[in-house]
Design brief:
The chain starts with a strand and ends with a helix. Strands 2-1-3-6-7 form a 5-stranded parallel β-sheet, with helices on both faces. The radius of gyration is 17 Å and the shape is globular. The chain has a single domain, classed as Rossmann fold. The protein is built from 6 helices and 7 strands, in the order E-H-E-H-E-H-E-E-E-H-H-E-H. Helix 1 packs across helix 6.
Length: about 200
């Protein structure tokens, strides 16, 4: 069992990283191998909308012509049994670095010139995902008043994963350095168990 996380936080040790670390710790408790990509440490170029990665038919994802850290990341995600996708809410959506990476996943769809809309290369979700977001607003507003939950769900679908749990953490801007409560840490660990147990 392998669990790979993608973290779109700008802050080292912030709310999102604490939650991701706890989820992965829970997965390791159940015997999973884990790894995390911090997007702020990855060199990810902007998608230039050339659609070259979307032209080849078949289930295998298209490859981007740009040379950066995307391909090594996708190889690890391809080999994962479960994934964790996490981002703070900034300006009512996921962070810019998460969105930048998300836009580069278009090679997971097939969209030849002349076809009106893209088609997913993956027929169904074959793995599990946990989605995590944090906000200054109450957590209940993340899925109903921001685009972050939708962006995380779409990213999971593109990667062939079905969400089996989510963690929407709110009111995290009340302190300069928010520390997850024991209840939040336990919730995250339980989500990690769920990923690893299937």
């Amino acid at each position: 069992m392998k669990v790979v996380a993608v973290c779109g936080s700008y802050r080292k040790g912030g709310t999102i990283e604490q939650a991701v670390d706890a989820v992965l710790a829970g997965a390791r408790e159940k015997g999973a191998e884990t790894m995390v990509f911090h997007l702020r440490e990855q060199r990810i170029e902007f998608c230039i909308n050339c659609r070259g990665c979307m032209q080849t038919q078949g289930e295998e994802r298209g490859h981007c012509l740009q040379e950066d850290d995307l391909e090594p990341m996708l190889k690890e995600l391809d080999a994962a049994d479960a994934i964790v996708l996490a981002s703070p809410v900034n300006c009512y959506n996921v962070t810019a670095i998460f969105r930048r990476w998300m836009e580069r996943l278009v090679g997971l769809a097939f969209w030849p010139w002349g076809q009106n809309a893209p088609k997913s290369r993956r027929r169904k979700a074959t793995r599990r995902a946990v989605l995590i977001a944090s906000s200054a607003a109450p957590g209940i507003f993340i899925p109903i008043a921001t685009g972050a939950a939708r962006a995380l769900r779409l990213t999971a679908a593109m990667l062939g994963a079905k969400p089996v749990g989510s963690m929407w953490m709110g009111l995290v801007a009340n302190k300069p350095h928010y520390v997850l409560t024991e209840r939040e840490l336990e919730r995250a660990r339980q989500l990690g168990h769920k990923l690893a147990e299937g």
